[in-house]
Every structure is written in C-alpha cells, then in structure tokens.
Give the backbone structure.
Amino acid sequence: MAGVFITFEGSEGCGKTTQIKSLANKLKTLGKNVEITREPGGTQIGESIRHLLQDPLNADKITPITELLLFSACRSELSERIIKPALARGDFVVCDRFSDSTYVYQGIGRSLNLSYIEQLKTISVGTLIPDLTIILDLNASTGLERAENRQSGTLDRIEAESLQFFEKIRQGYLDLAKSEPDRFFIIDGSLSVQEIESIIWDEVKKRFLN
Ligand code: TMP
C-alpha cells in the first residue's frame, strides 16, 4: 500500500490524543492528506461498540472472550472502511490504538489465549501492520490519575480495572516492543507535551519525509 500507517499505543492517561492531533496538524501543514482515527471506534458501528465496551454499567456483563470479539469486530470495520482505502489513496493514517492494544489488554491483561488473538487479528485485518507504532510509556498510577482528572473522577469500564492490571499492561507494551524493535518507538510519557511532540516529529520526518 502506498500510504503511511502510524499507530499510537500506551496505557490510560498516557497522552496519545494530544500527540495525535499535534502530529496530524504538522503533517497537514506540509500538505499531506491525513486520516485521523481511533480504536475502538472510527466508524458508525465501531463507535456504537465503543460505547458498549466502555459503559461502566456493563461492568459485569461482558466476558473476556466477548470483549475480544467486540474489539475485533470494530477493527474489521475500521480497516476495511477507513484505513485500507486511505492507505490505497497514499494518505497518512494516524490511529489511536490498533491490534497491539488487543494483544496487550486482552492477551496479557486478561490472559486470553494468544493464539486466539493472532487468529482474530488475521480474520479482522489480514496482513495490515502499522509502519510505525509509537508507545507513550507511563507509570501506571500517574496514568490512572491523569485519566481520573480528565473525566472529573468518573472512570469507564476498562479504566476501573486495578492498578495491578495497568502495571501488566505497561510491561506488556515494553515486552511487545522488544519483539519488533524496528516498528516500535518508545517515548517517556512523563516528558512535557512539547518535548514529546518534537521527539515524534523528528522520528516521523526521519522515517517518512526524506
Ligand atoms: P482509549 O483509546 O480512550 O484509551 O480507550 C480505549 C480503551 O479500550 C482503553 O482502556 C484500552 C481498551 N482497548 C482494549 O482493551 N483492547 C483493544 O483492542 C483496544 C483497541 C482498546
């Protein structure tokens, strides 16, 4: 595919949303076409599934396997309707989370069978893999505090998990990054917004804008 696919990953409150907007604006300033999207969500069906997945009222109503299937259904919609067409047009796609979130949250966090996760990945997206995945790495308790402050103390269904769960998520990302060191780029999420912006921009320029 002709375009460039960049994903952002990390635990709750790591600052992905701010950085995605900033990167997309910089790319647009250079005249690039940029599709910004997110998971779960990004399509009509995906946004409805996002609501189901995040609603705290569903706390005890979604089994880990149902959760895995819902995230996979969202991803299939997003890949077919948004990501693959944008890449085929030669655009930049900047996506807030992708398959790596499922590996880490459902595979490592919920301890689901990793071979199920791999099979569902193939079913939902085929061979689509990001060209670059930026991980904003942040201490789990700082991230949760940020998430709580952002939503004035209300946490969604997944954010309400234990600190121990989010420590597993953080470590899961760090371990996953070691398995594909060329694709992943880890940044210290405790740096200032401006410092992170500039590190990301240098990396994107180096890889895709020469
Ligand atoms: P966020 O994108 O606003 O961080 O919210 C998405 C939530 O969904 C977050 O808690 C991570 C979780 N998630 C999974 O558990 N598995 C997935 O595959 C994806 C995409 C997200």
Remarks:
- DSSP finds eight helices and five strands in the chain.
- The first strand starts at residue 4 and ends at 9.
- The beta strands are 4-9, 34-38, 92-96, 132-137, 184-188.
